[in-house]
Amino acid sequence: MSAxxxxxPADPADTVQLGHGSGGLLMHRLLEETILxxxxxxxxxxxxxxxxxxxxxxxxxxxxxxxxxxxxxxxPGGDIGTLAVNGTVNDxxxxxxxxxxxxxxxxxxxxxxxxxxxxTLASMKAAADAAGVALVTGDxxxxxxxxxxxxFINTSGIGVIEHDLAxxxxxxxxxxxxxxxxxxxxxxICILAEREGxxxxxxxxxxxxxxxxxxxxxLDAGVPVHCLRDLTRGGLASALVELMxxxxxxxxxxxxxxxxxxxxxGACELLGLDPLYVANEGRMIAIVPEDAAANALEILAxxxxxxxxxxxxxxxxxxxxxxxxxxxxxxxxxxxxxxGDQLPRIC
Amino acid sequence: MSAxxxxxPADPADTVQLGHGSGGLLMHRLLEETILxxxxxxxxxxxxxxxxxxxxxxxxxxxxxxxxxxxxxxxPGGDIGTLAVNGTVNDxxxxxxxxxxxxxxxxxxxxxxxxxxxxTLASMKAAADAAGVALVTGDxxxxxxxxxxxxFINTSGIGVIEHDLAxxxxxxxxxxxxxxxxxxxxxxICILAEREGxxxxxxxxxxxxxxxxxxxxxLDAGVPVHCLRDLTRGGLASALVELMxxxxxxxxxxxxxxxxxxxxxGACELLGLDPLYVANEGRMIAIVPEDAAANALEILAxxxxxxxxxxxxxxxxxxxxxxxxxxxxxxxxxxxxxxGDQLPRIC
Lengths: 347, 347
Prior knowledge:
Helix content of chain A: 25-40%
CATH superfamily of the largest domain in chain A: PurM-like C-terminal domain
CATH class of the largest domain in chain A: Alpha Beta
Number of strands of chain A: 14
Distance between the termini of chain A: 21 Å
Structural class of chain A: alpha+beta
Number of domains of chain A: 2
CATH topology of the largest domain in chain A: Phosphoribosyl-aminoimidazole Synthetase, Chain A, domain 2
Order of helices and strands of chain A: HHEEEEHEHEEEHHEHEHEHEEE
Radius of gyration of chain A: 21 Å
Oligomer: homodimer
Shape of chain A: globular
Strand content of chain A: 15-25%
């Protein structure tokens, strides 16, 4: 079985059929027998077109959306369901919001084995429970075989902003310190290794993780966080270039302070990839004032998902959008945005 | 050109490429040159992973999600973009909420002509502006040719609930009157006619419409609305069976009071379809107490999108989930949920 295609298994009764998307009895059964039991919670059970949310108490809200089309759908360290929850949790966390509610939009391909749907939903439920997020509203569509790819998932999330900071590129100031939460490149290399059938001494696992707990700890401790960004598609390099363009500043980062696991580094060399551009699903940068950096690092170090956090560079005045890398061998080079299509369908 | 497939046009520069989804320079350009200008608004321009929403003032919120996979993507009366905005506006309206914010998740197929993307985005923007909804956050993924179908769109919406009613199946009471907002079946028959190349004397246009204005007018006038439901996949019949199952009541509806345009009726007879099951995208039922029905009908009649509203039946005690149709020829039959896959990919 190729990881890329959705095989048509022998028993159609155990697969998703077009009728499962038509709003009738088959769909009712799919919801009652498979989807609702897997994701069960009070709001979803209300069975309305909309979930009714209470308890926002007038605070600012963060609202985000992401679709997930990763292939293969199952990989070491996670699957498309884990990713769909953690990725949206992280987008909320990057606004300094406490993730609260999430929607689930499924686009299923006719012929998808029901068991794969069940495994994916179970992963979503486990990741949502771990993050304290309620899956409150959903939608299921079915597309004909050959016009989709197994499962595509959209999750949209709402979080409550309990701080008064204006976290974002606009708050970045020269002198600020860039904190990187851990090693780079594991998610991207894990996916690529699965696709290409590459074997390493030990399996490289995706870094997929929810980052809201350490972020909220920074805010609770009063760290005046200027900007947060998770390092997904395009990796650290693209994120930094985007933030420097948006803020009008520049930065210099130190290669020797950017952790990359030896196996990931080896795979990157083998494949001609630069770990600075490889996607991560559980890594972020936090940009904080210089005098808050030591305290912030201490807080991050106390959580397993950011235990290896370190300062990797500082914000400077100068050419807007410029990111310079000081390499381990003493050279300095300009880091650009990823030009093309290094790794399609990584998330 | 078939409406079903996504052709690979001659000039790849004018189509969506895999690199447009990879988080680098190509994606940055797609966003800056095509997507953001088409959907432009202040919150989207913030360029964060999350939109920050202000002004919820502690009221209850409605939250909903829907993915749109309709084919063909362009049809008389609308397109997938119109549908994606109106459909989610309507899900919020069915909670009696004022639609405020919407997310846009695009899954594009490699090879999609850029012009189709531009037309779709323009439709979304026009529909959002008409409904007073801000498109505040988005995401774009690209899947390889043959693993998607042109454009899939997810929209998630947030609305503010300004009333104190508990609108839903749980509020339905025996004696309540069912109001239907207009004629049935135009969206489904329009899509089917496009797919099958059926020609009618005049073109049947989709009924796609946003229904929040008449709904909010009912609530503003103090109509104690018990339940609202839009009649999408599965049509009026499936919606009523679901609501009767959820409320534990039964109902009898009168065929003679259910408007169906002659051309739609003719097409249904030709195709062996029952208009009660055909999908609509701008129709709803409102279930209200008997003594509020006349006032509610008068209010609905004053809006073009619900001008043809009428009472079609009443809620009864008795077998939970039972829906009986009193036909024009004097017979009575039980209406079941749509058993299978009458019309796949209708929305």
